[in-house]
Amino acid sequence: MLLTGTVVADSETVIADGAVVVSGSRIEAVGERSTVAPQYADHEHQSYDVLLPGLVGGHIHSVQSLGRGIADDTELLDWLFDYILPMEASLSAEEMAIAAKLGYLEMIESGTTTCVDHLSVAHADEAFEAAGEIGIRGVLGKVLMDQRSPDDLLEDTQAALDESERLIQQYHGSFDDRIRYAVTPRFAVSCSEECLRGARELADAYDGVRIHTHASENRSEIETVEADTGMRNIHWLDEVGLTGEDVVLAHCVWTDESEREVLAETGTHVTHCPSSNMKLASGVAPVWDYLDRGINVALGNDGPPCNNTLDAFTEMRQASLLGKVDRLDPTATPASDIFEMATINGARAAGFDELGAIREGWRADIVGLSTDLTRATPLHDVLSHLVFAAHGDDVRFTMVDGTVLQEGGEVTAIDAEAVRREASEVGLGMDLEDARRSARQHKP
Fold first, then answer.
1. Helix or strand (DSSP H, E) at 48
2. pLDDT recorded at residue 441
3. Where is the Amidohydrolase-related domain (predicted)?
């Protein structure tokens, strides 16, 4: 396939009248349209105003999509134990499949082609199958919770680890290696030391399996961990093996100097979730400090109940503006840094090489946007537009691994209307009262 338009190959390379050639699952050629296009005149040709690498959601909760809008204006632990855990506990396998499809559909529609996805305790198979069916690239994991958890989500430690291993054996590297596994403890508050150490042992047993958890999102969380262990959260995670180049820690809002040194020294990845952190009033992650230390920082939306959208373009804007106001410095978190967080940094966190930029020989995950919009006029700087003005609904074309999932603004990978209809029926029909009563008994 021959794609033409303004090619934003990476944060430093923009080809105003460019072309990209895709052969199989890889990018065969990138360059000036006048040079590239004549050599591939026999290829199917599509043109979009802007072509860019597929965006990476470095921390996503696809299966929370049915809870969009049910827990607004709520503090984190109330949000979690009064709304989110009860919702997850109430979902049947069929409903979990619908929730996952809705999340993946939203991402494909809005230009996210890879996600690091924190699922739930039960019915993880449904999400893996949904991701495989729709065609998104992802690092998925079943959630581990063996303490301080509602009865319907609480698991025996070894049984939870055994189920994770079954899922690894079934799905890690599946669907032509688009789908990989991350061992996924929810967070230290709901996981025992045995569970956390077991997560590390399990990840070490399989090549390419990652670890994905929440860390230091909220002051109540770190106070609870310190009361349990006598250690700051990042130090505790380091003690039990949950730091390193194969670990993705979501949030990392409340870290001190010594914890940041650990993150940098171990090569641990951090995912910044600015909208979620603002909406839950968790605080402002010190992203500028992490980047200065050489810590790889990805960008994530978190879940729809604490963000209300999985639109990665909105998240780029939020991340840049929040970084500037936090430092009272308009030069902080420039568009180029933010774009890298949403693309190549996210690919590194997810563990996929040759992903996150449009380069010859790299994986063909490509997004096409329209700029035939009032808010794109005049278009002085395309990178500025992508970070500060573009929306997910500007996306007209989505390709993952060389396969077209959205074309001309229409999703071809799944019946989008049917997914929305089923999700609306299930979401509006949820009754959470019984699960909520159980969850409240375990709130820290």
1. strand 45-53
2. 66
3. 50-404
- Residue 221's identity, in one-letter code, is E
Task: Give, in order, the Cα–Cα distances in Å from 69 to each of 57, 65, 152, 271, 387.
Answer: 20, 10, 23, 23, 25
Query: What are the CB-based long-range contacts (under 8 Å, 24+) for 164-170?
Result: 164/199, 164/202, 165/202, 165/205, 167/124, 167/125, 167/128, 167/141, 167/142, 168/202, 168/206, 168/209, 170/125, 170/128
E strand residue ranges, 310-433 = 366-369, 395-400, 403-407, 410-411
Nearest to 359 by CA among 140, 2, 52: 52
Neighbour-count burial for 21-43, b at 16+ CB within 10 Å, e otherwise: bbeebebbbbbebeebbeebeee
Spatial neighbors of 141 by CB under 8 A, at least 6 apart, are 117, 118, 119, 124, 164, 167, 181, 182, 183, 184, 212
Amino acid 149: pLDDT? 86
Check: CATH 2.60.120.260 for 2-53+361-411? no
Ranges under pLDDT 70 in the chain: 434-435, 437-444
Helix axes 124-134, 93-109, angle to 10 degrees: 40
Q: What is the pTM of this model?
A: 0.96
Start-end ranges of CATH 3.20.20.140 in the chain? Answer: 55-350
Q: Which CATH class is domain 55-350?
A: alpha beta
